[in-house]
């Protein structure tokens, strides 16, 4: 099981604004800020999560050559829909409208957006017949 994940972004401020809005429907918010000074010159980092547990991190640094894919679990289809709308409203680019993806399994309902760096950010509800 993964405890947390993180990756560098090209503009920490812009990405922070994007993720604060896009992840709000999932109940995920900015919980921790680690400054460049605190890391001894190893970058600034922002931790998003819930219940006082940051589990999704973005930070300064050189973004990866190829995009990352991160999927967040949603409690129902309405949350998937709300995430997609919030992410687009926050400046994300559509990479797959909310809908069933039966290729994965019959109840797989997901939506995909590209963040400011082109990372593929998904939210998924496994629903009936889910994994």
UniProtKB/TrEMBL annotation:
* Highest taxon listed in the record's lineage: Bacteria
Q: Name one Pfam family in it.
A: Glyoxalase
- Outline the extent of the VOC domain: 1-126
| Classification via Gene3D superfamilies | 2,3-Dihydroxybiphenyl 1,2-Dioxygenase, domain 1
The record's listing under CDD domains reads: VOC_like (cd07262)
Transmembrane segment boundaries: none
Protein name from the UniProt record = VOC family protein
